[in-house]
């Protein structure tokens, strides 16, 4: 031991203590250096993760961004420096801010583990979708929030497009107007639309995941369609895609149905569409029956008939046309034109009719005559009736052979001319006879007038004198008879009056004749040798017998109308 050590006995202890402290400091420094290196490595790793990560990473402290990686900044179209100047909620869509706060709180408290989704407004005003998770950290010795986020805008748009497409396909499925179903591999029906509900008569819930398609197929078609079902799932192209079968609805009614079926790619499901063709089949049957009927009519109508194409070719002829033309059907049908049987004189006119009829069916006459030349070179007078077949450029023409009729008409015209010639001769004779008869009538009238005039001038006055003479009753009676008979014989009026009114007495006939001639009652009394009262009585009897008692008709006018 040295002298100093002996002088200071506590120095050794202090030096030892100092060496221990230095050793501890060296150890702590070594540990610090290790920790510092680890920290540097951690920061480098964090920086690398932060900058190289596909996610947006940021640290929020006191409500502001204090660390942001490039991805997080790019999501909002900002630079990292720009974003570090903003509050954390500055870029959040106004409508989503409350939801973001609530979800972040729940996540920090452990109440939520799933990421939450919200919208941000970018620097350019665009709306984008962000998915975020947050956790609590210590940053710079103080509490902070570490956020991880991803831009899922494209995913959201894809989901939206997917939803729209799904809605579109569902709308098509429901509103296509065709009964449609989805069929599983085990033949169960998993989905039906409203049209299928109407076709089947069952409710939707009775079908979906409950019934097999075999339940609506008639027994005669089940095995065939079952074979198609399983073959289609081994090779979709092997069975037919379209075919017909008999559909049985809920009421047991049988319907003819056309089926279109195909596999859904990537699945063992198939989609089937149904078209009810019952009415169509019935219509087709009726059309066939109608076609048979019209073909029978076409063949047995008794009139030569043909179908003419737009290019003037004869596409169909009947047996009567064969007889009219002198050539068989296979000579005409699809090979020759109607121009072959028309004479040159009529051809230009009929070609024009053919042309304009296809422009306006009413523009050409429907009936007209022409000269038909048959295969033996004989000319026939024919009347044609022709019309367009609706909805086509074809026309149908019927022919009536009027050759004999034309000959008869010619002979008739010749006879009519001869009759007219004879008629003119007869008319001349008739005219001469009329002249003679008129002359005879005039002579007769003249004779009657002369007889009547002479009778009135030469006979009546003397009869009146005889009546006024002193004659006995018998003589007066004879005079009455004589006067009456003479009047009846010479007067056409008296004759007509007596023939119409046989109940008039001779005296009444005599009075009526004189009234007609305009004689007054006094004049008639003087002529007849009786008192005026007797004449008035006769006039009253005449009016009564002629039915004039209740009429104001003038007796003279009435008697004049009878002449």
Characterise this structure.
This protein is of the alpha+beta class and about 575 residues long. It contains 20 helices and 15 strands. A hairpin with a 2-residue loop joins strand 1 and strand 2. Helix 15 packs across helix 16, helix 16 crosses helix 17 (about 505-515) and helix 18 crosses helix 19 (about 530-545). The longest helix is centred in the C-terminal third of the chain and has 66 residues, at about 405-470. The chain is elongated. The protein starts with a helix and ends with a helix.
Residue-averaged pLDDT: 85
Percent helix, as a range, is: 40-55%
Structural class: alpha+beta
Unreliable spans are 3-7
Based on CA atoms alone, the radius of gyration comes out at: 66 Å
What's the oligomerization state?
Answer: single chain
Q: In this structure, how is the largest beta sheet organized?
A: 5 strands, antiparallel
Question: How many strand units?
Answer: 15
Give the spatial strand order of the biggest sheet.
2-1-5-4-3
Fraction in beta strands: 15-25%
- The separation of the N and C termini measures 207 Å
Number of helices: 20
Query: What characteristic shape results from the CA principal axes?
Result: elongated
Summarize the model shown:
This protein is α+β, with helices and mostly antiparallel strands and 563 residues long. It has helices at 3-7, 11-52, 70-75, 80-83, 97-108, 153-175, 194-200, 204-207, 219-234, 278-300, 319-325, 329-332, 347-357, 403-468, 473-490, 492-500, 506-516, 521-528, 532-545, 555-561, and strands at residues 56-61, 64-68, 116-121, 127-139, 142-151, 179-183, 189-192, 242-248, 254-263, 270-276, 304-308, 314-317, 367-373, 379-388, 395-401. The longest helix has 66 residues, at 403-468.
């Amino acid at each position: 031991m040295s002298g100093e050590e002996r002088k200071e006995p506590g120095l050794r202890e202090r030096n030892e203590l100092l060496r221990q402290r230095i050793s501890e400091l060296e150890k702590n420094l070594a540990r610090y250096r290790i920790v510092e290196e680890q920290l540097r490595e951690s920061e480098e790793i964090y920086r690398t993760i932060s900058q190289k990560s596909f996610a947006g990473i940021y640290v929020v402290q006191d409500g502001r961004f204090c660390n942001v990686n490039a991805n997080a900044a790019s999501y909002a179209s900002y630079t990292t420096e720009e974003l570090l100047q903003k509050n954390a909620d500055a870029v959040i869509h106004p409508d989503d801010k409350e939801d973001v706060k609530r979800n972040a709180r729940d996540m920090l408290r452990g109440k939520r583990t799933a990421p939450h989704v919200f919208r941000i407004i970018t620097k350019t005003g665009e709306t984008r979708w962000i998915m975020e998770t947050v956790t609590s950290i210590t940053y710079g010795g103080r509490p902070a929030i570490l956020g991880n986020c991803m831009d899922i805008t494209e995913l959201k748009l894809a989901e939206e497009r997917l939803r729209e497409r799904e809605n579109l396909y569902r709308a098509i499925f429901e509103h296509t107007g065709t009964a449609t179903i989805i069929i599983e591999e085990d033949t169960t029906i998993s989905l039906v639309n409203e049209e299928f509900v109407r076709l089947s008569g069952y409710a939707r819930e009775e079908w979906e995941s409950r019934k097999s398609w075999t339940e609506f197929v008639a027994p005669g078609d089940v095995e065939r369609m079952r074979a198609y079902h399983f073959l289609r799932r081994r090779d979709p192209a092997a069975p037919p895609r379209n075919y017909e079968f008999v559909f049985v609805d809920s009421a047991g009614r049988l319907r003819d149905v056309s089926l279109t079926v195909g596999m859904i790619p990537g699945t063992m499901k198939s989609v089937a569409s149904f078209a009810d063709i019952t009415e169509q089949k019935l219509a087709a049957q009726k059309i066939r029956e109608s076609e048979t009927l019209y073909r029978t009519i076409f063949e047995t109508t008794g009139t030569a008939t043909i179908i003419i194409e737009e290019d003037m070719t004869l596409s169909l002829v009947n047996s009567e046309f064969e007889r009219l033309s002198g050539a068989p059907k296979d000579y005409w049908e699809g090979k020759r034109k109607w121009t072959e049987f028309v004479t040159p004189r009529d051809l230009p006119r009929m070609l024009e009719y053919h042309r304009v009829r296809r422009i306006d069916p009413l523009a050409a006459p429907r009936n007209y005559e022409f000269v038909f030349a048959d295969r033996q070179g004989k000319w026939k007078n024919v009347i044609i009736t022709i019309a367009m077949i609706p909805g086509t450029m074809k026309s149908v023409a019927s022919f009536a052979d009027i050759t004999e009729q034309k000959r008869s008409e010619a002979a008739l015209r010749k006879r009519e001319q001869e009759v007219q010639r004879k008629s003119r001769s007869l008319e001349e004779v008739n005219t001469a006879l009329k002249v003679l008869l008129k002359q005879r009538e005039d002579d007769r009238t003249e004779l009657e007038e002369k007889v009547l005039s002479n009778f009135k001038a030469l006979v009546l006055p003397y009869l009146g004198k005889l009546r006024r003479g002193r004659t006995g009753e018998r003589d007066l009676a004879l005079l009455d008879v004589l006067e009456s008979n003479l009047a009846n014989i010479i007067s056409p009026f008296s004759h007509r009056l007596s023939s119409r009114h046989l109940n008039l007495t001779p005296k009444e006939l005599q009075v009526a004749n004189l009234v007609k001639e305009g004689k007054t009652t006094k004049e008639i009394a003087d002529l007849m040798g009786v008192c005026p009262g007797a004449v008035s009585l006769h006039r009253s009897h005449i009016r009564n017998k002629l039915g004039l008692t209740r009429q104001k008709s003038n007796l003279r006018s009435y008697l004049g109308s009878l002449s």
